[in-house]
Amino acid sequence: MQYTDLFKEVSSVSYPGRGIVTGKSEDGKHAVIAYFIMGRSENSRNRVFVEDGDGIRTKAFDEKKLSDPSLIIYHPVRVFNDTTIVTNGDQTDTVYVGMQEGKTFEESLRLREFEPDGPNYTPRISGCVRTGKDGLSYSLSILKSDNGDDVQCNRYTFSYEGKPDGKGHYIHTYKSDGDPLPSFEGEPTPVLIKGDIDAFTNGLWEALDADNKVSLFTRFIDISTGEYESRIINKLG
Question: I need a labelling partner for 13 at 20 to 30 A (CA). Which of 51, 97, 186, 190 fits?
Answer without folding.
Answer: 51
